Amino acid sequence: MRLAGITVWTAAPGEYGAAAGKILPALLSSGTDVSEELAIGEQLLRAAPRSLLDLLTRVVLCIVTFLIGAKVISLIRKLIGKAMERTGAAGQAGQFVDSCVRVVLYAVLVLQIAMHLGINAATIATVLGSATVTVGLAFQGSLKNCIGGIMIMILHPFRVGDYIIESTYDSEGTVTEITVFYTKLATLDNRTILLPNGPLADAGITNVTREENRRVELKVGISYEADIRQAKRVLEKLVLREERIRRELGYDIFVDDLGASSVVLGLRFWTRTEDYWPVRWEMLEEIKYAFDENGIGIPYPQMDVHVSCAESGGKEKMQS
């Protein structure tokens, strides 16, 4: 626009102060009278509210965006929390996932607000991306263990109190604690093993105590001279006498192998998981007592040597 013979270009909303600083010296040097200066000031004052109104509009829009975004983030976190509770991962894994979701969603919200204020979103995204890559490379191992811990807590391949055998480190023991970064095992000889969750989540895991019942399999050898039918009847009496054996689930007594020095009988039955070792140990002991009482021998490995003498050049030959 043109005021009092001076050409003035309308400035952007945030540049009126700079424009006024250029106009006033020009007016003073041009020799214009006070009325012309007042006219110019009046027009500047008329333009200022538009800039202020635009700024206030943006501020109000940012506040509204933040409030609505905070409500949406809270709703999303509640939904994720309920989903984690349904999967049984409402402990440390749930807290960690909630923290990650909160940070990510608020970062997106701040980025959106920055765009409303006229800040270049591409620049912010580039900085955030670079920072994320740097942190990821620096804490690669820890992040892997953290993700592995979350997967373990969500999928539950084992729980606290389970006895597991894992293939990566050839370790086994009772699980005493599961954290985000590692799993703690207690061995039978009272040692503590800390396993990182990253490799553990990728390992083959045998959960020994997950199921309610467990099958016991015993093998015992009898001599070839012993009566197989009698030995099987003795084993069946022991099975019927032991109350901790789940006979309703079935049991098997059979000839498993004809060995070099014995006939191997097999015995299979079910018992509760917590009774597995006591029942196994006691049954082996009772089998030995019962076989001794019934005259059923349990042979040990032996070799028969046959010696024959023959005259061949006045010397004896021995064959074995």
Automatic annotation (TrEMBL):
Classification via Pfam families: MS_channel_2nd, MS_channel_3rd
Membrane disposition: Multi-pass membrane protein
Entry's Gene Ontology cellular component terms: plasma membrane
Signal peptide (UniProt feature, chain positions): none
PROSITE patterns in UniProt: UPF0003 (PS01246)
Molecular function GO terms recorded: mechanosensitive monoatomic ion channel activity
Gene3D superfamilies for the chain: 1.10.287.1260, 2.30.30.60, 3.30.70.100
Origin superkingdom: Bacteria
UniProtKB keywords: Cell membrane, Membrane, Transmembrane, Transmembrane helix
Domain Mechanosensitive ion channel MscS: residue ranges: 142-210
Regions crossing the membrane: 55-76, 121-143
Subcellular compartments: Cell membrane
Span of domain Mechanosensitive ion channel MscS C-terminal: 216-298
Similarity-based family: Belongs to the MscS (TC 1.A.23) family.
Protein's name according to its UniProt entry: Mechanosensitive ion channel family protein
Organism for this UniProt entry: Candidatus Eisenbergiella pullistercoris
Lineage: Bacteria, Bacillati, Bacillota, Clostridia, Lachnospirales
